[in-house]
Amino acid sequence: MKFRCNSHDLLSSLQITTRAISSRSTQPILEGVLMEALEDGLKLTASDGSFTSVTRVPAVVEVEGEAVMPGKLFSDVIRKMPSGEISASMNNAFMLTLKCAGSRTNIAGQCADSYPRVEEMSDENSVTLPQSLIKDMISRISFAIPTEDAREVLLGGYFNMQNGLIDMVGLDGFRLAMRTERVSDIENVAKAIIPLKALEEIAKLMSDDEESMVTLNFGQNKLRVDLEKATLYTRLKDGEYVNYKAIIPQTFKTTIRVSADEFSSCVDRAALMAIEGKNNLIKFSIEGDKLFVTSNSEMGDVFEELDVVNTGDDIVIAFNVKYLLEFNRVISGKEIYLKFNSPVSPCVISPAEGNDFTYLVLPVRINA
Q: How many CA atoms lie within 13 A of 185 on its CB side?
């Protein structure tokens, strides 16, 4: 193997690719990066067995070849090398020599024969969407996906595309987050449970530019994500997702309309004291067109009063502060609805204008 490339290009690709490597891999070979010097440039692949990241580096390849390089060490070495053109050559013992300016480093690689290869997927069921849309959908629901749960299907976000509508859903035993978008010009049907790690890595590489697009290619048990900088592959979760629409109540005894910014600020202030307490609770008391937000701990208490538009009964209800703070991070719009049925029934939060976001949270039972 022998090639030349720019140090910045190689480092940028390594920074993307090595994020797929798991620190707890049961396969030592997966602690490395598969480096392939091909006719059209350098190809880097890293995987944890379920999630795989593939990037390409512009390079002048004089001798083709492949090897597995130690992921973290390889990345650290390239990061510390001088800027400029790197000349790389590998001998038959898989020793890679890197030269840049006056610097030279030798790194021991290993044979790539045992490195698991990515199976190519057909483009039969693929859809191209704005990166900004997918990034926003992931950010709105990922906080509600648990990192541990006996129900394997809940360890991922549910992507449901049909009839020109996309739902992306995250839920655990205490809350549900759903982001909905109408894409009327798309007739594809796809249902997939995408692991949380994959969603987080996909979102990190997404652009906020509305002109930038991403292609999602759905296979039977795998998803391929085609981006400018990388191609990502992830194994999908097996099983049937929860019937999330059945969880969301359709009628309510109390509905209040409130300024999103004012509500968010009140919750943030009340949270400071709630976090100090043993119960971590924030209490809502709705009396006519007033919402009182309170919290207390051994260190003190907080009282907030908000003007609202109430179309229903008065109610007193309490929530775990953690769940309200997580919602606060993704709140949007000028006004929101908070909908209730009883002090022990789920609260549903949605935008006052449109229906692109739905958040459901279970309350905490409090003494009368």
A: 3
